Structure formats: structure tokens, C-alpha cells
Amino acid sequence: MNHPDQAPRTGASERAQAIADRVEAFVRDVVAPFEHDPRYGSHGPSEEMVHEMRTLARAAGVMTPHILPDGSHLSQRETALVLKRSGLSPLGPVAVNTAAPDEGNMLLLGKVATAEQQARYLAPLVAGEARSAFFMTEPAADGGAGSDPSMLQTTAQRDGDDWVINGRKAFITGAVGARVGIVMAKTSSGEALAATMFLVELPHPAIRVARVLDTIDGAMPGGHAVIEIDNLRVPSRDVLGEVDQGFKYAQVRLSPARLSHCMRWHGAATRAHEIATAYAVRRHAFGKPLIDHEGVGFMLADNLIDLKQAELMIDWCADVLDTGSLGTTESSMTKVAVSDALFRVADRCVQVMGGTGVTRDTIVEQVFREIRAFRIYDGPTEVHKWALAKKIKREASGAHR
Fold first, then answer.
1. Where a domain ends, among 243, 258, 277?
2. Where do the Acyl-CoA oxidase/dehydrogenase middle domain residues begin and end (predicted)?
3. Secondary structure of the chain: what % helix, strand, coil (to 5)?
């Protein structure tokens, strides 16, 4: 049986297909056995485990597979093929260096950073020798920025040739153990809100981990932390891009990053479907295999439909981004459709497997938890629908003038 992400094989180059095949073989054969490693805890795999997996990935020639040896990036359509395969295990993206937030941070640094900044901050990320963190979201209790960036509370003030940053951040993925940080802070002095991004070498004494949150998901190294920033001094040479252009750069990063999440979790949902299908074929009840009961067989059929529709949405959005468009509308639609569809797939997989589905004997229950969190991360479904509704209203108002 062909996997849902393998048939038909269209829209991707031979080079991308070859890379994706190598990544899939590595994830299935080498990474999947790590899923029951005791070093894989509730806040992700340990640094030792990450290093071990990446050493194996480097030896297999699949480290950072979406970035080519000359530094060029696969197209978004090609990246979709590769990242879906990396996601066949929740640990796959970490092992081959296609995971969030690093994948999105590498894309942003490649587009915006200076040559000197790329040498200091980007090169270690691409080599898989360092991890990174993106410091944007802030604690709700402080009235800080979440899905609404206009609520940004962290500030950066000029002091000679330096900037001094103060504030608190929350849900900062991978901050524990990261060596590269991108900090978003408010820099406007007038009425118009503006923000700037700053590059920071980590760990830094002015950036303190207040606590690591216990969340429903657990695939990301370092987990998700609450951060306190106290008089962080950053030289002007470490401003990422231009001052006051942080919101623009955030869109450069976030639209493709939403799509990358869809790619990776499509792979995870595909693997969960494979496990549930094998269970339904093997397990007998009431005189026949589970899959021969319509209630079960139809759920697996619905999975195939959702996986294929999600794949088509991913490829469509990738094509839009490959035209050079920011694709904010398309990435919002895709994030909503794909996250909801993949959650349905994961939920059905748990249901098909019954009691076994809620145990940690397989990765199905973890995929369910991870994809449930994905429906919130990078913007909850409702926020994206609200943005789409505002666009519909603007276009309708213009059409009736």
C-alpha cells in the first residue's frame, strides 16, 4: 500500500524526491527506535539524545536536508515533501534539523541577517550544532502579546550604540539549551507601534528561565519556557534587519513556519494512521478483523480523505509561497484546514485502537497530543478565521462601492 504522501508523486523535483526518500528511511529505521528512549521526557529529548541523533543524521547525510550544500533552500513545494517525511516520527524533525523553531529561524536569518550575522548565528544552526529560540509571545497575565502582536510589552531602549531590553516572554520553545536567540521588542517612540528584532548569543545572564511549562505536547527539546529579560544589552550590530521593521520580518518568518508545521505533522498523522490500520487488520472482534466492521473501516477511510485533502492544501500554499508572495491568507487557510484535519485523523486513530490507543505502547497517543497543541500554536484556528473574515469584509465592502 502506498503511503498517502507518496501517491501520486507530482510537483516535486527528482532531487527533492531523492532527499525525501533518504530522510524517510533514516526516520523509520534509525530515529523511530529512540521513541521509547528514557532520555525522551515530558519536555522533549535531552541534549545528549539530540546530539546522538544528529550525529547519526550527519553520518547518514540527512542533516538539514532542506538546505543544500551551497546554502540554497529547496522550494516550498520541495520542502513539503522532505518535511512530511521527517515528521514520520515526532523525533524526526529534531534529529534531521527540520524542527520548529530552528527551521523558521534559519529561513528568517537567511533572508534578513547580514553576512557577519549569518556567519555567527546561522551557520551553527544549519550545521545542526546549535539550537535557537524565538522570543515573541508574552505572558497573558502581563497583558502581553500572544496572537495580537500589538500588545507587545517588552521594550528596547537606545543607550549609545547599544539597546537595552526589558520584559517577559512565555511559551518560548527550546529556550533551555538554545545557543541562538531572536528577541522581539517594542522600539517605537511615537504613536505608531513598531518593533525590532535582536540577535543574542545564549545562554545570557540577562535572560533567565523563570520556569518550563508542563504542556500537553512534549516533542520539542527544552520544552516551552517563561522567560524574564532584565537589562539585556545588545549592540547595534546585532539588530536583525532594520530598526522598527520587526512586524514585517515576523510575517516573513511566520507564514512559511505555519506551513512547515503542517508539513511535519502531516507526516506524524500519516504514521499514526499506519499504526491504527495495522492494528485494525490484526485485531479481531465479533468474529472478524476490526477493519471489516464498518464503524472502524469508515474511520480509516475518512483518514485517507483528510490526509489527501491536507496534502493538497499544503502543496497549494507551498506553490503560492514559491511565487514570492507572503501568502498570509493562504497560510492562514492552510493552517486552519490542515491542523483540524490532522487532529481528526489522530483522534480516529486513538478510537480505532481503543484502550491501546490511549497507552504509550505506540506513538499514536503522543501524535494526538502534539497535533492538539498544533491547533493553538502559530495562531489558534479562531484567530486565523477572524483574520480571514476581516479580509472577506474588506473585499465585500470594496466590491459594493
1. 243
2. 133-214
3. 55, 15, 30
User: What value does the CA radius of gyration of the chain take, rounded to a whole number of Å?
Assistant: 21
Nearest to 384, CA basis, from 327, 312, 331, 343: 331
Where among 103, 126, 149 does a domain terminate? 126
Rounded to whole angstroms, the Cα distance separating 188 from 43 reads: 36
In whole angstroms, what is the distance from residue 320 CA to residue 327 CA? Answer: 6
Give per-residue pLDDT as tens, 204-254: 999 999 999 999 999 999 999 999 999 999 999 999 999 999 999 998 898
What's the confidence (pLDDT) of residue 193?
Answer: 84
What is the rounded average pLDDT of the residues 26-55? 97
- For residue 251, the one-letter residue type is Q
Cell of 293: 466492521
**How many domains does the structure of the chain reveal?**
3
CATH (domain of 230): 2.40.110.10
Q: Are 282 and 121 in contact, with CB atoms under 8 Å apart?
A: no
Mean pLDDT, rounded, for 385-401: 87
Cell digits of residue 99:
524542527
Under the banding of pLDDT at 50, 70 and 90, the label for residue 326 is: confident
